[in-house]
Amino acid sequence: MKVAVAFDHRGVHLREAVLDVLGGHDVVDFGTDTDAVRIDYPDKAREIGESIQRGETERGVLVCGSGVGAAVAACKMTGIRAAICHDIYSAHQGVEHDDMNVLCLGSEVVGPSLARELVVAFLNATFDGGERYVARLQKVAEMERMMKDGEVTAS
Question: Is 64 marked active-site?
Fold first, then answer.
């Protein structure tokens, strides 16, 4: 599988743990590799998101300090289904039921050992493809389309 990875200046603390478990995958590394310079998570979310949108990668792993900002930013992009996961069940179930394509982690929340387990669970999972899951994703895609076209109004 072709996997994009990116880390902001706080997320870089999990960099080695994430990269350790990506053997056998084709990795596109959007950096960073140091905490010496501030790197904003929206920029990294955009790099991963655009890579997936263009079909250059299938999934992404995005790491910031808490994982929250990374998930918020990534989900603003059409077709990106990102979630913060700090437990193994969510890391694989998010793919199986929701076709999650970006795993977001928080370097201040999980340690290297759990980060490795989460990445493995995420990458080993496959979308179930069941009728109810597909129907839900179609609703999400319709929401994205409506928002893009300006059809959503406050109630």
Answer: yes
